[in-house]
Structures are given as C-alpha cells and as structure tokens.
Amino acid sequence: MPISPIWEIVRLASQIQSEGGDVLHLDIGAPPFRLSGLISAGLEDALRSGRTGYSPPAGIPEYLHAAAERTVARFPDGATRAGFDARSLQPRIVGSQGGTQALMAVISGVCDPGDNILLPEVAWPNYVEQALLAGVESRFYKLDEQMRPLLHSIESQIDARTRAFIINSPSNPSGAVCPPQLIRSLHELAVERQVWLIDDLAYCDFVYEGDYLTALECDWAAPENERCVLAVFSCSKSYSAPGLRLGYTVCPDPQLACDLAGLNDPLMGCLTTPLQLAMAQGLLYDDPAQRSEVLKERWLEALDLAARLGLSGPRPSGGMFKLIDISASGLRSTQFALRLLREEHVAVVPGAAFGMHPVGHGPRGLRFEVCREADRFVRVCFASDPQALAQGFLRLARLLDCLRAA
Ligand code: PMP
Prior knowledge:
Shape: globular
Radius of gyration: 21 Å
CATH superfamily of the largest domain: Type I PLP-dependent aspartate aminotransferase-like (Major domain)
Helix content: 40-55%
CATH topology of the largest domain: Aspartate Aminotransferase, domain 2
Number of helices: 17
CATH architecture of the largest domain: 3-Layer(aba) Sandwich
Bound molecules: 4'-deoxy-4'-aminopyridoxal-5'-phosphate
Distance between the termini: 37 Å
Strand order of the largest sheet: 2-8-7-6-5-3-4
Strand content: 15-25%
C-alpha cells in the first residue's frame, strides 16, 4: 500500500522546519482545541484505580453506554420516533479504535472477497485502501459540482456483487453536506436494492449551514426489517482527541454489532480500557457544540478570504476543509502543493490524495490512477490558526496568480 500523499507533505514540512524554516500548516485536520479536562481526569482516574485490563471485544459497558447516550442526545427526534433510549440502543453499538478501524471492521464484516463497494470518486483515501485489504473491489460514484453524491451514478453501478456504498456528510475533503432529500433518496435506494449504507459521520458535529439529516436517522424511521445503515462515529474531531483512537459503530441490529465485535479481536486485540473510561466522560458531558461555534467562525473567515482572493472551489457547509481549484496553474495538485510548500512554506494536501483509484498490479505492486476530479484541487484545513489561515490563503493565491500569468 503506498503511503498517502498527505503524509508525504507532512514529512517534507517537518524537514523544512527542522532546517529552521517556518511552515504554515493548513494540511492535517487536527482540531485546534485542548482535550477536555473531563477526559484527562477520567484517564487519570482509570489508571490510578488500576482499570488497565483487557476490554471485551465490543468495548467496556461504560463506554458503550456513553456512546449510546451521546447518540440518542445527538439525534433526539430520530431516537424518540424509533423508540430508542440509551439502554435499548446500547446492544447495537460496537466500539472501535477510531472511525478508521470501525470502517475496516464494517467493510470486512459486510463484504466478502470478490464483492464490490461503491465509494465517492473524491473521498478520504482510507476507504479504497481498506477495500483493497478486504479483497473487495472499489467502484467510484460521481459527485455533482458541489461534491455531493449523484444518485443515478450509485444506482447504475449496483450489481449482484455490490454489498454497500459509503457516504460521508460532511465530507472530507470537500466539506459538502448532503441535503436531507438526497439522504432520504440514498436511503431508499439502499433499502430497495438491499445493500448496506455505510454512513461515515466523522464530522457530524460540525455543520455550519442548512438542514442536516443523517442516513442513520432515516434508518431509524424505517421498519426494523428494512434497516440497512451502519453509522460510523469518530471521537477524534468531535472531542479533539485524534490520538486517543476511539470511535464506535451504530448497527441496525444487535446481531450485526456482535459480528463486528468478533472482528475487533483479530483487527486490534481490544480497545484500551483506560482510554474508553476517559472518553466515556467526554461522550457524556463534553458537548462539542461550543467547539463547533469556534470552527464556524473559521469557516466563515475561510469563505470570506477565498471570495476576496478569487479562489474558487466547492463551497463547504461543514467539516474542517475547503477544496481550492488550482487547475489554472497548469500543474497537477501534487506539483502545486510541493511548490507551495517549498516556495511559500505553506503545507496543504494535494487533491490527488483523495482520488487514488486502483487500476491493477504492475511490476512494483499495486498501481493507482489519479482521478481528474480530485487532481484539480488542493485541500486546506480551515480549522487552523486564523493568522496562519489568512497568510496561507494569501500565499496560495500569490503562487496561483504567478503560475497563471506564466
Ligand atoms: N472518516 C473520515 C472522512 C475522516 O476524515 C476520518 C479522519 N481523518 C475518519 C473517518 C476516521 O478518523 P479516526 O480514525 O481518527 O476516528
């Protein structure tokens, strides 16, 4: 598996920094907040009281209970309509080492080798890599100009070997949020064609405009025998804790949660017990809403800067990222990102990182082709420090103007 271009940029940026250069970081999507004191106190308590044993495959009850409480509190209308409270939801939940491991378990849990899965053509790169690891064929569905899924592109690619499609709203890398009607149609499609709908909700606590609906809520409104949504949550962004590696999946039924828990064992042994106890405090008492307000200001600032500097690209409505169209530079996204880093000391992620599509094997292993729709852009993280954001946008626009004029 090739190392993602994201980490290549990070490596080069630290090299420049180690040589004394100053780099503005608009690359990695690290939340700009300190970990809540509740979570760190929870960790200290767990360690002090010796809660360092193995955890059951699905997670310890305290963590699963907190995840259930949080999910019911986050989607109160859907939960009430479906008759879920934390107690009845808990058996449907399985803990994971971040959203990443949850997705690996979900993909290998619902697909067999030789099956196929439909992914957005511009998407977080791990989906493709995880499908490859599971021996599952990736097919790519088209997105509209605002980077939202095109229903007919999903519909037309479903065949007898299709087991699932993944959606990610708000999206990484585009920040696109699917309107509620689209979510309803995607859910109807999954029900009708009897495929799983994997709802990657890593950024669900950061939506800044418009109505927001998740496929999970649609699923809860459906009769039990039609439920088909596996909703994957990450604590990394919501609780500013990417290094604690926690997440969870809400399954349509308790049996599927048990099956996924069975995969946790070979995938990672088990979750760390003290970290689950710590995060349980976060899930119960540390509401991400205030952090979302801060990010909303940075989002507004990013939209304003982009408009003032004439930087185009799809409008994000949530998440932490904005795509900027650099096609006028005449460069591919990786070349542009490398020049921006070397000449202007601004780190961004090349769009190519989100469009690596496997095209078989070559003499040196797997071969990938970069999807054109992704290669037109670089991704900036607007959660970054506001001064770095303003300077970074200025320098990016300067390089783009300079290349455009050349
Ligand atoms: N999905 C998306 C779209 C992401 O961007 C990320 C984090 N970068 C994840 C899932 C998983 O994050 P984690 O493993 O840190 O929970």
